[in-house]
């Protein structure tokens, strides 16, 4: 449990800095020693509680119009992702998670310069992918980040909008997981009660770090951690 607490603290410190990014760190690492459905349910509960805390401080800077455009496509993606989660083999799911996390890590480490503006039509694939990836891997943030960064130039508004969209995604994910029967275990609720305060401490720390760390430095650090965790999952399933 101490190791899990450390992983959660690091992941939610990143969340406090960026408005997303906890699950890409916590899910791949925790999946090494806990069942993936358990990890995904735990991550969803922690994400929801942490996004609510961060949202209290940032909601006024969020672009609500972009949230309303993304939401319907996210719901469709979540429904598809939950269906796949309960039917796919465990090793295949872990391998796919590892590949996705490695790819995303390379993207955030190698990307340079300003992002090109995106049209609103990109909300369709962004919402669908975020829903599917959130349900399957607990990692719904990256497509939101790419879309919102291409729509909103101000970084403070980006962080606020991403945080609220992640909160909406996670809220829908928790509801979908509950319907699928993934929130019934006593051990899961014990883990949530023990680790949620740790996640909140990470969010508080990350929120304080947010004003003092260069975004490029954070991207390199997070990218390196993500690539290592993703690669280890791939090796584990071979």
Give a short summary of the structure.
With 238 residues, the chain is mostly helical.
Task: Describe this structure as you would to a colleague.
With 238 residues, the protein is mainly alpha-helical. The protein has one domain (2-237). Helices cover 79% and strands 0% of the residues. The chain has ten helices and no strands. It has helices spanning 2-18, 23-30, 36-58, 64-85, 90-110, 123-137, 141-151, 155-179, 186-209, 215-237. α2 (23-30) runs parallel beside α10, α3 (36-58) crosses α8 and α4 runs parallel beside α8. The two termini are 27 Å apart. The mean pLDDT is 81.
SSE diagram, text form:
Elements: H1 2-18, H2 23-30, H3 36-58, H4 64-85, H5 90-110, H6 123-137, H7 141-151, H8 155-179, H9 186-209, H10 215-237
The beta-strand count equals 0
Largest sheet: none
What's the N-to-C terminus distance? 27 Å
Estimated radius of gyration: 16 Å
Label this structure with key terms.
single chain, 0% strand, 238 residues
